[in-house]
UniProtKB/TrEMBL annotation:
Official protein name in the record: FAD-binding PCMH-type domain-containing protein
One Pfam family it belongs to: FAD_binding_4
Similarity annotation: Belongs to the oxygen-dependent FAD-linked oxidoreductase family.
Domain FAD-binding PCMH-type: 33-205
InterPro entries documented for this protein: FAD-bd_PCMH, FAD-bd_PCMH-like_sf, FAD-bd_PCMH_sub2, FAD-linked_Oxidoreductases_BP, Oxid_FAD_bind_N
KW Oxidoreductase (keyword) present: yes
C-alpha cells in the first residue's frame, strides 16, 4: 500500500483527466463549470514538444500550456481547443555537483526535485510552499519563497533554458550570453512558446536538517504590523528567511485582528531546538494530515487551529519546515471557498498598497458581505528581473480571502478592477497567475514582465 503523501487540496486531483477542465479558480468557486479542451498533448521530451508544436502550427492552432493548473487567471484553459500538458516532461537531465547546478525538464515538480537534490547536500534557492508546483509553471510567472529577499524570484535562479516556439523551433537562452532574451521568456506566462528544459543555480544546504530560530513579533494593531514588517523587509539583516501574516477573522459580532511577522536566523543546532521543531511541527502537520479527511464540523475546528498555528509559528524550525509551512497545515479545498490575489509592491509603496488594498477589501466586506475572513501574507523580494536591472526591494502582498456568496462573479470582477487600478496608481505589479482584469491594456500595465516586453508578446 502506497504511503500517504500530504496535499493541501484533498478535494481534487491535479493529474486526473477531469482536472484539465479546471484551473485554481475552483478553490474560490466550488460550483464553477469545467472548460474542457478537445485535444490534450502529453509530450515527454524536447523532441516530442517539437513534433507537437509543428503539428499545431500547421493546423493553425495555438495550444494552451498546462502543468498542474495553479493559475486562476484563465491562462491554462482552452475551451474545445488544444492543451499541452507538461506532466510527463519530468526528471533531471544533468546534475553538475561541483558548480551546484542542475538541468531539468520543465514539468518537474520542484518538491520532488528538492528531495532528490538533498541526497547530494544541495537544494533549490527558491521553492513554493505548495508541493505540486512545477519548474516551468513557476518560471513562467516568477516564483516566491520566504528566501526571496536573499535569492530573488525563482526565475532569478534560472541560468539557461531551451524554448520550443509556436512554430516548433528550439531556441536556447543563456544568462551569460543573452540575459535580455532570457528575461523576456521568464515570467512571460507562456506567451512565446513552451519551456522544454532549464538549468538552475542551486545552494549547498541540508534543508531537512539545518535549524533556524524564529524571531517572531505578534500584534493586534495593523499600524504596528505594517511598521514592523516594513522595517524588517527593508532591512532584513542576517535573516535567512522571513514572512508575515495579517488576519481578520469574525467571531460572533467581534472581529479578531491578529498579525505576526517572523524572521528566521541561524542558530545553534542543539538537541533542544530540534526537539521543539519536531514536537511543534509534528502537531501542525497532524492538523494538515487530518484536514480534508475529517467530518465537516471537525474541518472547521481544524481550519481555525491551523490558522492560529500559522500565527503562533514555532520558535525553531528546519529550513524545509519554513518553506512548506502553510501548505502542510491548511487544506484549501475544505471550509470556505478561498481566493488568492497577489500584488507585488515596490518597497517604498508597501504601506500605501497595504492600506489601499485593505480599504478595498473592507469596503467589499462591509457593503456586500463578501468575505468570511481576510488575510495578508507578506514576503520580501529582492529581484533583478522584477526591477528590470539592479535588484531592488519589493514585497509580495498575497490576499488570502475566505469567500462568501455575496462575492458574485460580477463583484469579483469589480474587486479585481479596483485592485488593478490601485496597482497602476501606486506603481505596483500583479502576480499574473492570480486573477487580473481581462483588458489587454490593463494587463500590460500590471504585468511585471512589462519591462522585458517585445512586440510579439501581446496580451490577447
Amino acid at each position: 500500500m502506497q504511503a500517504y503523501r500530504f496535499t493541501s487540496h484533498e478535494g481534487f486531483d491535479h493529474d486526473s483527466i477531469d482536472s484539465f477542465g479546471y484551473d485554481w479558480g475552483r478553490i474560490g468557486d466550488r460550483a464553477t463549470r469545467p472548460i474542457r479542451p478537445l485535444k490534450i498533448y502529453l509530450p515527454e521530451t524536447t523532441e516530442d514538444l517539437v513534433a507537437v508544436l509543428t503539428e499545431t502550427h500547421l493546423l493553425g492552432q495555438r495550444p494552451t500550456i498546462r502543468s498542474k493548473g495553479h493559475s486562476s487567471n484563465d491562462l491554462v484553459l482552452n475551451d474545445r481547443g488544444a492543451v499541452i500538458g507538461t506532466q510527463m516532461m519530468t526528471g533531471i537531465v544533468a546534475l553538475d555537483e561541483p558548480n551546484a547546478q542542475v538541468t531539468i525538464r520543465s514539468g518537474t515538480v520542484l518538491a520532488d526535485l528538492d528531495e532528490e537534490l538533498a541526497k547530494h547536500h544541495l537544494g533549490l534557492k527558491i521553492i513554493g510552499d505548495h508541493n505540486h508546483i512545477t519548474a516551468g509553471g513557476f518560471a513562467s510567472v516568477g516564483g516566491i519563497s520566504p528566501a526571496s529577499h536573499r535569492f530573488g524570484l525563482f526565475l532569478d535562479t534560472v541560468l539557461a533554458l531551451d524554448l520550443v516556439t509556436w512554430e516548433g523551433a528550439v531556441v536556447h537562452y543563456d544568462k551569460a550570453t543573452d540575459p535580455a532574451g532570457l528575461n523576456r521568456v521568464l515570467g512571460s506566462c507562456g506567451r512565446l512558446g513552451v519551456i522544454a528544459t532549464m538549468t538552475l543555480d542551486l545552494q549547498r544546504v541540508d534543508k531537512w536538517v539545518e535549524l533556524v530560530h524564529n524571531r517572531r513579533v505578534i500584534t493586534r494593531d495593523m499600524t504596528r504590523f505594517i511598521a514592523h514588517s516594513g522595517k524588517i523587509i527593508a532591512d532584513p539583516g542576517d535573516a535567512v528567511m522571513e514572512r508575515g501574516v495579517w488576519l481578520e477573522y469574525p467571531i460572533g459580532k467581534r472581529m479578531l485582528t491578529l498579525g505576526q511577522f517572523s524572521s528566521y536566523h541561524a542558530t545553534e543546532q542543539s538537541s533542544w531546538a530540534r526537539f521543539v521543531d519536531r514536537v511543534h511541527y509534528g502537531y501542525l502537520h497532524w492538523i494538515g494530515d487530518r484536514a480534508g479527511r475529517s467530518a465537516a464540523w471537525l474541518e472547521k475546528v481544524l481550519k481555525v487551529l491551523g490558522m492560529l498555528g500559522i500565527i503562533y509559528s514555532p520558535k525553531y524550525a528546519t529550513l524545509k519546515n519554513v518553506e512548506t509551512f502553510s501548505d502542510r497545515i491548511i487544506d484549501s479545498s475544505e471550509g470556505d471557498p478561498l481566493r488568492m490575489l497577489i500584488v507585488l509592491a515596490p518597497m517604498d509603496r508597501y504601506e500605501a498598497l497595504f492600506r489601499g488594498l485593505h480599504a478595498i477589501l473592507d469596503r467589499f466586506r462591509r457593503d456586500h458581505d463578501a468575505f468570511a475572513f481576510i488575510s495578508f501574507y507578506v514576503k520580501a523580494i529582492k529581484s533583478a528581473w522584477l526591477s528590470g536591472g539592479e535588484a531592488q526591494p519589493f514585497c509580495e502582498l498575497m490576499l488570502y480571502l475566505g469567500i462568501r456568496p455575496g462575492l458574485t462573479p460580477e463583484l469579483l470582477t469589480a474587486l479585481v478592477a479596483d485592485i488593478d487600478a490601485l496597482c497602476i496608481a501606486q506603481g505596483g505589479f500583479r502576480y499574473m497567475h492570480t486573477k487580473t482584469s481581462k483588458n489587454a491594456d490593463i494587463r500590460a500595465k500590471v504585468d511585471p514582465n512589462s519591462v522585458h516586453y517585445s512586440a510579439d508578446m501581446p496580451w490577447t
